[in-house]
Design brief:
about 280 residues, mainly alpha, 10 helices
């Protein structure tokens, strides 16, 4: 539990930094932009929960040691920061040029939210096409080499399976961004606000991962809260076509409320299930 409390402290640190950044946005850009920042941050953080459970299943499936997990997540977050900028930059450009695309984003979010309520068979990461593709394209060792992504054998540089796992983590984040970035567009289409709120949420993911890793059974039902948040943001976007406008303060309240209720219900139900 000592590691959990340590990770919780870092999660609290990144959250506090996000709050201070929001206050800075308030001071320099006004209250509306600050609310957009906080709304985008909360959406990204809440939707990140489901993605972290995917990371846990990948690491457990391959038996990745904790130190190696730290290394993969560090590189994964660095890659996500770059990829998110590209994704958000072109997303904002498209939305600016074709505003009706927001309605399509809304429909996609609603559909994906509904899908999350269905119990799906857990996919084996070993069967991932990404892993197979990397193994075919790059010269690779047969076994893991500690925390190394690259080793030298007989004068040749070989990638390790850990590098393939890193590629799988990055690909998972790209798929996750397909949901999370359009969801943030429901509160703002300002490039600076969308990107900064995304980045502050991503920076706290590494520590949040290690909290959820130790407490995943207690948060087993959070994914249903994430599904509701996805559908809510989808309705918020799709509703614009009929003139339905949900204010940012209400959106923030709904997101916080759903997330808190899903966490509390998860803890109650997990205790009952354990007893």
């Amino acid at each position: 539990m000592k590691d959990v409390f340590k990770s919780l402290k870092w999660v609290a640190f990144w959250m506090a930094l996000a709050v201070l950044s929001g206050l800075a946005v308030w001071y320099f850009m006004g209250s509306q932009k600050a609310l957009e920042f906080y709304g985008g941050y909360l959406i990204e953080m809440s939707l990140s929960m489901d993605n972290l459970f995917v990371f846990i299943s990948i690491f457990m499936s391959y038996g990745i040691k904790e130190h190696a997990q730290h290394r993969v997540l560090s590189y994964g977050i660095a890659g996500a920061i770059v990829l998110r900028f590209i994704f958000i930059f072109f997303g904002v450009k498209i939305v600016t040029m074709f505003e009706w695309i927001l309605y399509i984003f809304g429909a996609i979010l609603i559909i994906n939210g509904i899908k999350m309520f269905k119990e799906e068979e857990e996919k084996d990461p070993h069967e991932s096409r990404i892993i197979r593709a990397v193994a075919k394209v790059l010269p690779m060792t047969e076994s893991f080499e500690g925390e190394k992504f690259l080793v030298k054998r007989n004068g040749k540089r070989l990638f390790t399976p850990l590098f393939a796992v890193l590629c799988l983590i990055e690909f998972s984040d790209i798929l996750f961004a397909i949901d999370s970035v359009p969801a943030v567009f429901s509160v703002s289409t300002d490039l600076l606000i969308v990107y900064s709120s995304n980045i502050f949420a991503i920076l706290g993911l590494r520590q949040l991962y290690f909290v959820l890793e130790h407490l995943q059974e207690r948060f087993a039902y959070v994914k249903y809260g994430v599904a509701i948040i996805l559908m809510f943001t989808g309705v918020k976007l799709a509703g614009l076509i009929v003139g339905l406008h949900i204010s940012i303060p209400i959106s923030i309240g709904v997101i916080i409320g759903v997330l808190v209720i899903s966490i509390i219900l998860s803890m109650i139900l997990s205790k009952k299930r354990a007893s």
